[in-house]
Amino acid sequence: MKAIQINSFEEYQEKYTKSITQPEAFWGEIAFNFRWKKKWDTILNWDFQDFQVDWFKGGKLNITETILEENIVKNPDKVAYYWEKKKKKDQHKSITYLELYYQVCELANGLKSLNVQKGDRVCIYMPMVIESVVAMLACARIGAVHSVVFAGFSANALADRINDAAVKVVLTADGLNRGDKKVDLKSMVDEALVSCSTVENVIVLDCIHSNPKMKNGRDIFYHDLIAGKEKKCDAAIMDAEDMLFILYTSGSTGKPKGVVHTCGGYMVYTAYTFQNAFQYDSKDVFWCTADIGWITGHSYIVYGSLLCGATSVLFEGIPTFPDAGRFWEIIEKYKVNQFYTAPTAIRSLMSFDLSFVEKHDLSSLKIIGSVGEPINEEAWNWYYKHVGKNNCPIIDTWWQTETGGIMLSGLGGLSPMKATFAGYPIPGIQLELLDTEGNKIQEANAEGYLCVKFPWPSMIRTTYGDHERCQQTYFSNYKGYYFTGDGAKRDEHGMYRIIGRVDDVINVSGHRFGTAEIEDAINKNEYAIESAVVGFPHDIKGQGIYVFVVVNTKETDENLIKSSIIDSIADHIGKIAKPDIIQVVKGLPKTRSGKIMRRILRKIAEGEKDNFGDISTLLDPNVVQCILETR
Ligand code: PRX
Fold this sequence. Notes:
Elements lengths: L8 H13 L1 H9 L10 E6 L4 E6 L2 E2 L1 H12 L4 E6 L8 E4 H17 L7 E5 L4 H13 L2 E4 L6 H10 L4 E5 L1 E4 L2 E4 L1 H8 L7 E5 L13 E3 H5 L11 E2 L3 E7 L7 E6 H16 L6 E4 L6 H13 L3 E5 L10 H9 L3 E4 L1 H7 L5 H4 L8 E5 L5 H11 L6 E4 L33 E4 L12 E6 L9 E2 L3 H9 L6 E9 L5 E6 L3 E4 L2 E4 H9 L4 E11 L3 E10 L6 H15 L8 E5 L12 H8 L16 H8 L2
Parallel strand pairs: 4-17, 6-7, 6-8, 7-14, 8-11, 11-12, 16-17, 16-18, 18-19, 19-20, 29-30
Antiparallel strand pairs: 1-2, 3-13, 4-5, 9-10, 14-15, 15-23, 21-22, 22-24, 24-25, 26-27, 28-29
The structure holds adenosine-5'-monophosphate-propyl ester (PRX).
Adenosine-5'-monophosphate-propyl ester (PRX) binds next to helix 10, strand 19, strand 20, strand 24 and strand 25.
């Protein structure tokens, strides 16, 4: 979408100034480039004290019309996705915008035939296949709200999410391919649904031809559902502030919360950031390696990129299968121009022989991006030198599930770049660094809590079913600000570097977990009395999961206890949250009021042997020594 593209750093500065001095005029001008059934009455209403925000109020639209109708008019035969399967020799598939339109309409009609209506929630628990994108868009087409659950989550985690959103229909597959393994998804869904009463139907995509058990009256194959359905389906007319989707994410307390995004603002902001961060040209091939189960996949594999009419690669595999050259081989195969991945993948791949990357022609690359966690200097340098061949700008994009789109990033090659710095805010993003008391930090290179003081179009609207939780989580720490949960510093030029989470959220390989949710899973284990989970620096994953657990006397074999705890976490969350270290301890360091002093545990996990600061407030200071002795 060239009309919304910034073309120089000077233009960025002008736009940034305008976005602050005249935010409504600024966003109104951008929003005019999308298909609206009816233009908005007001651009922005907001309140960060008693949190409420709406963008483009009174506007009517369907996001799939800018994605499908608009792009079909321009170029129906343009490839929307190249789908690359796990193995080199497997046939790849591609789908054009026109074909995507037909498939979305067919499935939308299929959903309608199951009586899915505007506002109903549909859960998508699927592999990285084109049908998953089709499923999301089919929901959007008829105004149903999708809730995509990453297919690495367990049956229990899936059930929690289904119940929280009172989901009516689940879309899944019989299974998926991960490396050289096949993972059964359908039986996970069956297990989850034992405790979900709202689900009326399950649609099953035949992916791995495993002949799954189908429940009569409830389950239907995807191909049977769409058979004979019309390839046209009128788009539901949505209010700009109607829900587009829910995406669950972990916080520092309680169960994961359903972050709600709405139609109008999310559309405008994801397209704006896609176009500008990646400086996308209509002939480019873009590849984001995330899974669509995370926000990165939602915003830059599906919505932002499709809104801009992009051609993307959709990859079902993993970076190291069948070997560590897989990413580089795909870049060469499709002549990828913008490549967007996570530091954990870079760190993992840089540990292999350089020949894996050097034997492939990566000269098509123009921009290489990073997302999900802080990128350390060594990984940044390797990425720049060996993947970007010293002439592709790295854009380090900082953002969150709650922000909907990229907040900090260089714009393609336009902005100055500095290793490990995410850079400047996107126009419209007004950041502030605050100290513990909420005072603004003005001086350069000082660390503070990263907050946002003005709304942006794709910001979280609420946490599903519990607005008070949204208010408490994001707007109560610092009055009048959205609190990100991240620490950051700003250099003398105004560039930001993200330090990492300052709350009880840990970021493992770019995946976000709340320590409380892992503790909850451990505490359900038959041997566990209580536990404390902290993050610690990990060479590849960024952060690893360190578990301290107090156990009962039912079992004395520590190895058995540990593997049973790993199983509990796999059962309640998923294998993706597997702890790196489990230490059985006699007690946890607690204050007299019973609060666990995580500060001390974090230091122990980091390898600290003394220097724990003041431990005199501990109920039993000897506990620390005991833990150190058994570390
Ligand atoms: O700590 C920040 C980290 O990931 C958190 C958000 O996680 P999630 O909602 O899962 O979204 C991840 C993908 C957008 C943030 O609070 N994070 C994300 N991107 C970066 C980052 N940390 C440092 N640098 C980044 N580029």
